[in-house]
Design goal:
By secondary structure, the protein is mainly alpha-helical. The chain is 47% helix and 7% strand.
Amino acid sequence: MDSNNRLGDIEITDPQAMRALAHPVRLAILDRLRRHGPATATQLAPDVGATPSVTSWHLRHLAGFGLVRDSEPGPDRRQRRWEAVARGFRFKAPQDPADEEGQSAARVLSQHMFMRYADLPGQWIAEVEPELDPVWRRAAGLAHTRLVVSPEELAAIEEGIERVLAPYVTRDPAERPADGRGVTLMRYTLPEDAEAQTGQTQ
């Protein structure tokens, strides 16, 4: 596995694929399939906010870019079941600033993802945190850390975080602890604008 992709994510480099994924229903479909496993369009529809026929159309569109695929048939072999091709996905803006199409596509997908997950912490506080056992409530938390680093140092920090996470993300489900449960780790890496650096002392 590529040392820069320790989590086994599918890497999206095609601007058309980025634009295809930059849609709330398609992001919801991938989230649902990654979290709960294979499903039919009918099973997905209530969770993704679309009718079964519209959900089926979005699934075929995602399949065209290699983001989902056919799964093993379920009890009803007449219904097509789908699965995500990987645990997660990753993308980056092209290194070449002249690649306007790639830069624009990456920016649009980033915007959709930021908007999709912006409310997640508030939902967790309101709906999940009050019902957690004390041991899980103590383990949860928030970190807000400001650094002054170079682009290379920031890349090294991200790589180090993924090195720590990789064994837990990629291990076989049979090796998970009996008292384990799903945990969402949200990482925002937000470089400041150039003006914010003027006169900084910390």
